[in-house]
Amino acid sequence: MIQTKLLEIFPGEGFAVQNITHLVNDYITSVGIQQGQLLAYYKHTTGSIFIGEHEPGIIADIEKVFESITPKDGNYFHHQRHVDYNGYAHIRAAIMPTSITIPIIDGVLAIGTHQEVLVIDNQPEELPRYIVLQVTGE
Amino acid sequence: MNLFNTIFIWFGGVLTQTILEVTFQAMFPDEGYAGKYNERSEIKKLADELSLGLFSAQKYCEQAIKCCNLDISADVLETKILREAFLREPILNLMEELSPKFNLWLISDFPETWFKEITKNEDRLDLFLGNRILFTSVSKLSRMIPDIFYYITQSTNSPIDECFLVDGVSARAIEAVKHGLQSTIYVYPQRLEHELAMRKILKTDNEVIHPPSSERIS
Questions:
Q1: So what's the pLDDT on residue A58?
Q2: Whether A21 and B187 lie within 8 Å, measured CB to CB
Q3: Fewer CB within 10 Å, N- or C-terminus of chain A?
Q4: What does the alpha-carbon distance between residue B64 and residue B23 come to, in Å, rounded to a whole number?
Q5: pTM of the model
């Protein structure tokens, strides 16, 4: 069985993080798959999907690291196109994953105690963001 | 390990939905946000202004109707909003469990009239009666972040490093930590219980930090 869903979220503006673990779990439950795997693919170039812990201190630390290597107010060649001014967001996205794969065992995501499915997006304004969820298995 | 004495819990986003969520549910019950991104953005802005007390609930409803081009009255929308808002049972139970051991405070970004209407049948919220509810609309803050963190700790005379914030808005919870106020992001009830147990705010005999086989607790 292969089933696919497009998930729409609104992570927020600037450096924004959204926890989608429960949304992914709800989808797996609705599909009824017992053994297999989930592919989650982030469809944008200003953000990323990854496994992490949605703890405010960790997220603040990630933001601090990003800001030190790709400051929001930095100069970026991308801005010379004069379409948008989010060079920092593209660089941050380039060094983080755009997809994750998680085993599904006995109908649930086989994630560890502190693991959660998180989306980070750095787009300066809030826009809808889309994630392809695809489950494969039986 | 922090020793917390005071716990702040947001009403909108933790105990009930956010103002944005409940407004959209009232206006577009079956449609969600799809195709209404501008409307969502406008209502979010209005909700933020309502929380700061920049205008009344009636005016908020009028403005929300206007930006979505709906053909209903402000009174009808307000009634629908109040009907759509619900209290999360597991959070009420959790607050009841925490109340004997901690100074619990509710932060309501909903106007006082809405808060009273939504909670009127819930006896378990009696523990907040008197002065244990902070309404942001009367705070006279010109901006929510970071001023709210200092407002709530000063209003309750609580040292910031002895306080803990439960917030359903991820960005605000992250900003809180940057200002010295420990916080957690509410996503769903079991997750919150796990987080509170890890911080020893909730007592448990289970191993919650390094459980066997790295099993997921919630």
A1: 98
A2: yes
A3: C
A4: 8
A5: 0.93
Say if strands B103-108 and B6-10 run parallel, antiparallel, or are unpaired. parallel
pLDDT beneath 70: ranges in chain B: 1-2, 129-130, 217-218
Nearest by CB to B187, from A16, A19, A56: name it.
A19
CA A112 to chain CA centroid, Å, is 18
Q: Is A127 near chain B, with CB under 8 Å?
A: yes
Give the span between the Cα atoms of A76 and A79, in whole angstroms.
6
ipTM for this model = 0.90
pLDDT of residue B129: 64
Neighbouring C-alpha atoms within 13 Å toward the C-beta of B35: 3
First to last CA, chain A: 6
According to DSSP, the β-strands at A129-137 and A108-109 are unpaired
Q: Cβ contacts (< 8 Å) between B178 and chain A: which residues?
A: 60
Contact call for A59 and B183, based on CB within 8 A: no
Residues A18-48 have pLDDT tens digits of 999 999 999 999 999 999 999 999 999 999 9
DSSP string for residues in B150-177: HHHHHHTT--GGGEEEEES-HHHHHHHH
